[in-house]
Amino acid sequence: NQSYDDIKRMDRDGVWHHLTQHSVFEHKYPTIMARAAGMNIWDIDGNQYLDAVSGGLWTVNVGYGRERIANAVRDQLVEMCYFAGVSGTIPGALFADKLLSKMPGLSRVYLSSSGSEANEKAFKIVRQIAHLRHNGQKHKIIYRERDYHGTTISTLSASGQEERRGQYGPFTPGFVEMPHCSRYRSQYGDVHDYGERAARELEAVIQREGPDSVGAVILEPITAGGGVITPPEGYWKIIQEICRQYQLLLILDEVVCGVGRTGKWFGYQHYDVQPDIVTMAKGVASGYAPISCTVTTEDVFQQFVADPADRMAYFRDVSTFGGCASGPAAALENLRIIEDESLLDNVVDMGAYLMDRLLELKQRHAMVGDVRGKGLFAGLELVSDRHTKEPVAEAVVAGIAADCMAHGVIIGRTNRSFQKFNNTLALSPAFIANQRDIDAIVDALDAALGRATGPV
Ligand code: PMP
Predict the structure, then answer these.
(1) How far is residue 253's CA from residue 148's CA, in Å, rounded to a whole number?
(2) Class of the CATH-defined domain 31-62+342-453
(3) Can you tell me which residues the record assigns to a coiled coil (predicted)?
(4) Residue spans per domain, the chain
(5) What is the distance in A from the centroid of ligand 1 to the CA of 440?
(6) CA 8, CA 64: separation in Å to the nearest integer?
């Protein structure tokens, strides 16, 4: 029976926070969130907020307080919480079957418990295939500037965000960067074929490194934390062609975009592309249980079973919490809710409404340089001069986010973006958002932008 003051003291004195720069060093000590329902959340002092970022990091996709998921997890924990090693689990099988029904062309699901782990598994598959099939060649993995793939040393080695890589070097060898694909920050000026040119950068990197040494490329369908960068027209078709030509495995990191966020089950399904490996985490169980997946084609899977001598390679990886039955139990119920409530349709409808309203903001606030997004996933890149596209100072972005929060709406910020400034705001409300919710979010943002600049 601790008092709230005691809890705040324990948090302040004992917890090493994530993302503390957003609060500890800029404004005040992190808020402690205590209770939530639907899209609303209350802090320990009883202040209410409308959550426009689905749990801070685009995760609680079906909203808070879902009894169906809570009951599915509880029932599974009582039935059998965990087993791994010599067995599968019932929810693991049911979830894999249902997930694969949403992913034509893919056929195997590996379970783990975080996005980083799911990406590490993908990298290990590439390295194993290099050993099994290419004599150790084709081991390099290309990643893209601005993309992010996780917190571990190897996933950071594959992340194109200097601000996240920070002081963690030396990095894992064999990861090579290719340029970003933000048309707004075009590297080639105002060209009509931006998408194709940006995609051809992949080929340039392959040629530079030597085609025999490169085995895979990992990309986010929409770069999330690096600035909500939607792919330019024509991009994916060329990427796919290059992957086929040079026999690269195409790994898509759907940790943010996956499981409905963009209005289709997976972000890549909007585009002309078929991946070999897809990773996902965050919204897989909407934050009710930690679970992530690495999903592969039958072709990738067969590399490990075709020859009896290779079979040990298939089993070599053991993730303890891949055997945790509550994760797939929660994830299965999450998928059922999205289906039963037709939430993908709502993401499409409300996403279009959100985009319309944000484009209105762009007309009224000179600071809004670019508005991008897909489904219920949107970014506003803020500039101090629309002509030069000079990013606003980081403190301005932080101030707008803090202003919205002070007025009861939690919005997100992406990581430091172009030219090393953090100048993009991110919105990713839960799939249950209605027009009133979107209006409340955009109105708060409108007011905060007005206080920051005054209307044009
Ligand atoms: N990939 C992407 C695109 C992400 O945004 C994140 C998390 N922000 C990760 C991977 C890593 O996931 P996790 O934090 O669950 O390890």
Answers:
(1) 9
(2) alpha beta
(3) none
(4) 31-62+342-453, 68-340
(5) 28
(6) 23
